[in-house]
Amino acid sequence: MARPIRFNAFDMNCVGHQSPGLWAHPRDKSWKYKDLDYWQDLARTLERGVFDGIFIADVIGYYDVYKGSNYHAIHQAAQLPVNDPMQLAAPIALATEHLGIGITASTSFEHPYTFARRLATADHHSKGRVGWNIVTSYLESGAKNVGQGGLRRHDNRYEVAAEYVEVLYKLLEGSWEEGAVVRDGEKRIFTHPEKVHEIAHKGKFFEVPGYGLTEPSPQRTPVLYQAGASGPGKAFAAAHAECIFVAAPTKSVLKAYVADIRQRIAAAGRDPKKVFIYTLITIITDETEDKAQKKFEDYKSYVSYDGSLTFMSGWSGIDFGQFAPTDVVERIETNAIHSFVEHIAGGDKSWTIDELAQFGGIGGMGPVCVGSPERISDILQEWVADTDVDGFNIAYAVTPDSFEDIVAHIVPELQKRGAYPTEYKPGTLREKLFGDGPYLPKTHPADGYRDIEAVKRREAEAVPALKTVGA
Amino acid sequence: MARPIRFNAFDMNCVGHQSPGLWAHPRDKSWKYKDLDYWQDLARTLERGVFDGIFIADVIGYYDVYKGSNYHAIHQAAQLPVNDPMQLAAPIALATEHLGIGITASTSFEHPYTFARRLATADHHSKGRVGWNIVTSYLESGAKNVGQGGLRRHDNRYEVAAEYVEVLYKLLEGSWEEGAVVRDGEKRIFTHPEKVHEIAHKGKFFEVPGYGLTEPSPQRTPVLYQAGASGPGKAFAAAHAECIFVAAPTKSVLKAYVADIRQRIAAAGRDPKKVFIYTLITIITDETEDKAQKKFEDYKSYVSYDGSLTFMSGWSGIDFGQFAPTDVVERIETNAIHSFVEHIAGGDKSWTIDELAQFGGIGGMGPVCVGSPERISDILQEWVADTDVDGFNIAYAVTPDSFEDIVAHIVPELQKRGAYPTEYKPGTLREKLFGDGPYLPKTHPADGYRDIEAVKRREAEAVPALKTVGA
């Protein structure tokens, strides 16, 4: 197989992740998100389908732009309630052997020193199958609720994130040398103290003088995910991310994005083919075209108009509650809405607010692909061939059915065509994805923090030099 | 059975928790702490032995008082490396049906808003079997490493803790009313918005205006553990704790402590019999007295002198590295050492530094009980009868052997005597322990935060009154 299509499952530790209202569908089990069995069963399904991983999104906060209140978010369980994603890593690891486990965590809510320990622990527990989805943004309500414990609001979020990952690299890559832990019962040495280093980090936002708390985990730094689509988000992804998650309404939008991001990765001195890009999609399929279309019609009847616009308003910052369902977007004199709708729709259609709600009501901001296994497989292959994307980040309409349908129908069809992997590669998640060993490659910025004593000398020299300039 | 003896396993997500050097014993498996199988196997053993729970201690930081460095802590893996305890809750829950899971978390390192979500998530995942061991103290090195993200150093730790638990009660008890979540597919209502409340918390240390992120977990507030022995620690435990963990060298010290704490609990308006007190102990046993004694001698030969004094120095703040092993404590002119040794030894012996290291080298600061099942059972029953303690918090010398020996030898002997439970009670951890329902009782301070709208009115009225006083 030259270059297989890659699948990732997009989920969240909540009810009806991006399909507001579909929790009421009799087949939907997302309300069982509190049960570990639910997650373990889903993980086994995805591993049977040779998915690269399951990616657990997260928000801390809630959607309150629509009609200026939280009413509809709560009413439709629109990502509220929401449980901690990190605690899903161990149970998913226990239920599977290969599946990657992507956990979202923000650089805004926890200190990097304690977060480094959480992340390393998850990597230990999963024997190296964890990815970290780095997010910087947060809902206004989240920032308010973590009050003084949170970061200052006026901080540049990506500037904080850059220093945050630097602290993590120092702790996870630099603090504990290879071979530090020997567990030598004869000589009664567990760890060689001279091979464990204080990181002496003194930055603009964080000060961490000491040692990392954890011994090196299988991947040291887990696989780095990123989903930022803004300018600084793209720059951050090009510098750090190994898996990038995007949402694009059309092939032409996607193609331009992929070309741009690969060029930026190359400009950062990294191999642009060793960063995987997954585009958001929702797939509704069945044995036949007709059955798939009927399934789609059935699903659509459960979409919550208010729930859908709750998300859209939260994501765009535009309160769609001020319009009637029949209002046509072209006739609304707000540039922001035009640009938002253009982004999601690819600009080739005029939309009513109701159509907008229907569109976003299944699987969020990605295209919804409905049809027979053959037709869907044609489309997926076409998207990959035409856009240079590596694969798909698959949202569900109804869970676990959406994923089970894909594993039952799409995966075998693509495998038959030689376009999808039939088994996992051995090793850690990073090895399964890229095949070059468990650690970040030498071209990655993390490599610069491995010889921490050299970093400390460099930083010690840099400080007086800067002072001289200022004097 | 009138009043059974209760067992709790004392552990930590690290190597050789309180038995420095015993990691080198060929039977010790604590170096496998990174593996979930290790924890699941241990949990199954404890459940077979009808232990109330497993209590995962934690430190963020490391021991650097001994000889003024971290050398020996690192060399002997003395609670460094150490992994995140919270991520053990789900795997232990998956391996067991009844065992309580006590997770330690500090009120100093994470904001209560995000911590409330973590705790509720663990309670959901375990179907209500989680306890939270509330700690306020931390190692100096931990405070330094969480830099500006941590709380201000000069804050009164128990004052912060009191407000921290208040925020948790408001979020976990008050924000989501009973019956808020209905998941009514017919009416398309997941949650009644009018039954979910903003908590509007505005305190000295935290400001949390909004909603809790999680729907009510089986216990709402998990079972509250506390282990503070200082004056403010005792007051906090008397007000809030449901399980209290103590360390006492002699029956007379323990008896006085238990009487004092029960009196304080009663004074706080709570039922002193519905708070369980577990005292630290290490048990070394085998089929016969002789085998047990030989096992003890074997274990002792692995104690690390430096590792043991690393802990003792860290706990007491006294650098024992300044003395020779043969120095006799009585001859050292430092009151602090006398008082520390008196505390751990009960004041009835004169100690050399080497004896001190030996004493603390197995199981930390609790007594070590060595003998046949009959002899140990006699001692345990005598301690309970003479001191009014509810049970024992059992540290290991070598793990899992120390626990397996107890389950194989002590538990059946005590059961034969009708002094130990033979099965678990049904329900959540709180119901298994106290039998009165899954939630904190009405006499607990958490009850005052259940009607959150009343709390908000009360607080709104209180503020002007206070202002008037100040004016």
From TrEMBL, chains A, B:
Keyword entries, A-Z: Flavoprotein, FMN, Monooxygenase, Oxidoreductase
Domain of life the protein comes from: Bacteria
Pfam family, one: Bac_luciferase
Domain Luciferase-like: 26-384
Organism per entry: Shinella lacus
Protein name as catalogued: LLM class flavin-dependent oxidoreductase
Protein's UniProt keywords contain Cell inner membrane: no
Alphabetical list of Gene3D superfamilies matching this protein: Luciferase-like domain
Family affiliation: Belongs to the NtaA/SnaA/DszA monooxygenase family.
InterPro entries attached to this UniProt entry: Diverse_substr_monoxygenases (IPR051260), Luciferase-like_dom (IPR011251), Luciferase-like_sf (IPR036661), NTA_MOA (IPR016215)
